[in-house]
Model the fold of this input.
Amino acid sequence: MGTKAREIVGVDVAKVVEMLNKAFADEWLAYYQYWLGAKVAAGPMKDAVITELVQHAGDELRHAEMITRRVIQLGGVPLVSPQEWFKYTNCGYDGPNDSFVRKILQQNIEGEQCAISVYNNIIQEVGMKDIVTYNMASQILQDEVEHEEDLQALLEDLGVILDK
Ligand code: FE
Ligand code: FE
Ligand code: MG
Done:
């Protein structure tokens, strides 16, 4: 990052980098959870569910890219090894070992709810003292809010079919 760009960051940079790296681990695990979920999902409305899972996987990968760019700008080092994902993650990984669409939706809704808290915390932490990180985290938060909404809508539609 340029010297002026670093000078205007009014927060503990190491702390922000750590928070971003934890979110970075979450994004990769979320990406994989969605990506694999989309491969194995089975049951009613499977096509609609798979379409959504594939879109969300793409969004999570894009989030990982946004975060790693900011980590590097801040002079930090993005997590080097996938083994570190499990050490750093806030939200963990909940693999699709049950391929039924309802179960997969529920697992991913939990993940989104965790992600919403993570980005909300980052936003609270940096506030107006690091506007670039603030903007990035709020863009990602908007996506996560939409993800939760989309998955809950699918779960509701599924409920109409299954709970009759
Ligand atoms: Fe994400
Ligand atoms: Fe998401
Ligand atoms: Mg969506």
Notes: The chain has one domain: 12-162. Residues 131-162 form the longest helix (32 residues). Residues 52, 55-56, 146-147, 150 surround magnesium ion (ligand 3) (CB under 6 Å).
